[in-house]
Amino acid sequence: MNTVITIGRQFGSAGREIGEMVAEYFGIKCYDKELLTRAAQESGFCEEMIQNHDERPTNSFLYNLVMDTYSFGYNASSFVDMPISHKVFLAQFDTIKKIAEEGPCVIVGRCADYALAERKNVVNLFIYADEQAKIKRIMERYSLSESKAKDMIIKKDKQRQSYYNYYSSKKWGRADSYDLCINSTVLGEEGTVKLITQYIEDFEKKK
Questions:
Q1: Which helix (H) or strand (E) holds 120?
Q2: Fewer CB atoms inside 10 Å of the end CB: C or N, the chain?
Q3: CB–CB of 83/62 below 8 Å?
Q4: 3-state secondary structure string, 32-101?
Q5: In angstroms, rounded to a whole number, what is the distance separating the alpha carbons of residues 21 and 204?
Q6: pLDDT digits over 176-196, tens only?
Q7: How far, CA to CA in Å, does 34 sit from each of 37, 50, 77, 193?
């Protein structure tokens, strides 16, 4: 097993849980919030700051500057002037690359597919689900009413979409941005995990 698996996911689709189950199946690590802790340790930012900017979009004309400095190696002066949200993004970006260097793993969210676009041993997945299934899951998880759960789903997905579309050159949730998109409602969590593990095992054989 030598594959890095990235998982984009709709809020309430069980994408994180599915990622953890896939990691457990292969006996590899799953990074979700753990990635933030590590990015904080390695970048010197406090973890709270990284969490505050986690998968949140930013509307800033400095975006192009960041991408330029990232492409050409950012120098000290441009890094100093950069908005904190960009610094946090770059810290996560670097951490994702380091984690992938260390061996096979599952990375949930945070534009990991984009960060690892140059690598050949990566499979990019997107997990989505039927609206009612997502609402039910979020109602149960956070003890919310149906309308509050629905609002939370819309808000979270909007954030993730803006963040992904802003920092990557692809479109969040669109089939051509990923290798495989799965509706977790159809097969349930275990069935979805089975489908993914089969896909990864076949991908490994092809290499």
A1: none
A2: C
A3: yes
A4: CHHHHHHHHHHHCCCHHHHHHCCCCCCCCCCHHHHHHHHHCCCCHHHHHHCCHHHHHHHHHHHHHHHHHH
A5: 18
A6: 999 999 999 999 999 999 999
A7: 5, 12, 30, 21
From the list 124, 207, 135, 136, the residue with the least C-alpha distance to 173 is 124
The verdict on pTM exceeding 0.90 is no
Element (H, E) at 201: helix 184-206
Residue 106: closest CA among 200, 180, 31, 199: 31
> What is the C-alpha to C-alpha distance for residues 51 and 40, in angstroms, rounded to an integer?
9
CA atoms of 170 and 132, how far apart (whole Å): 27
Q: Which residue has the tokens 């441009």?
A: 78
Per-residue pLDDT of 90-135, as tens digits, reads 889 999 999 999 999 999 999 999 999 999 999 999 999 999 999 9
Token pair of 46 as six digits = 């406090």
Q: What is the C-alpha radius of gyration for the chain, rounded to an integer number of angstroms?
A: 17
